[in-house]
Amino acid sequence: HKLGILISGRGSNMQALVEGSRVPGSPYSVALVASDKPEAAGLAWAAGQGIATFARSPKGLAKADYESQIDAALRSHGVEAIALAGYMRLLSDAFVARWRGHIVNIHPSLLPNYKGLDTHARAIEAGDSHGGCSVHIVTEELDGGAVLGQSKVPILPGDTADTLAQRVLAEEHKLYPRIVAQWLSR
Ligand code: GRF
């Protein structure tokens, strides 16, 4: 399966997915890394790995036109499934419908808890014993589709949003390639 990855920044989960695709027997390869932020650090890394990239800001474009460009780039690279990896823009209902069941996302909380932003601060504030991360199917509802896999991370005394985020991120890097491989080996 050819995977397209959408990022907006650092791209550490994208990097983990690329590394996972290189494990012998991996059911997927990464055909395109696309970013709405041309300056995203992850783009330069992907290009350096010889992976095709699409880098375009949506500035000045209607959302539908911008998404058509992304869609065209994905299709021209033969992409069959999409992984969001820190892509900070909401996909339109039309885009989600066109790729229905073929988009996954990684979210830094134990869904259905803490959809949206500031997940770690909210988990600490609530006095939760654990934070974590979830890989889920993307639907029209933000962070709302079926959960394919989760990792739990204990919240330690003295944890701040940053220290918890670091430990959760390490788990994201293990979880995401594993779940994407499972998802695409049907
Ligand atoms: C990760 O915490 C991911 O869970 C969230 O955005 C962050 C992206 O980080 N959706 P990176 O760009 O993959 O390093």
From TrEMBL:
It is an enzyme of class 2 (transferase). Coiled coil: none annotated. Its EC number is 2.1.2.2. It catalyses: N(1)-(5-phospho-beta-D-ribosyl)glycinamide + (6R)-10-formyltetrahydrofolate = N(2)-formyl-N(1)-(5-phospho-beta-D-ribosyl)glycinamide + (6S)-5,6,7,8-tetrahydrofolate + H(+). Pathway: Purine metabolism; IMP biosynthesis via de novo pathway; N(2)-formyl-N(1)-(5-phospho-D-ribosyl)glycinamide from N(1)-(5-phospho-D-ribosyl)glycinamide (10-formyl THF route): step 1/1. (6R)-10-formyltetrahydrofolate binds at K63, M88, R89, L90, L91, N105. InterPro entries: Formyl_transf_N, Formyl_transf_N_sf, GART. GO terms for biological process: 'de novo' IMP biosynthetic process. Transmembrane segments: none annotated. GO terms for cellular component: cytosol. Catalyzes the transfer of a formyl group from 10-formyltetrahydrofolate to 5-phospho-ribosyl-glycinamide (GAR), producing 5-phospho-ribosyl-N-formylglycinamide (FGAR) and tetrahydrofolate. Belongs to the GART family. This is Phosphoribosylglycinamide formyltransferase. It comes from Sphingomonas suaedae. The lineage of its organism: Bacteria, Pseudomonadati, Pseudomonadota, Alphaproteobacteria, Sphingomonadales. The gene is purN.
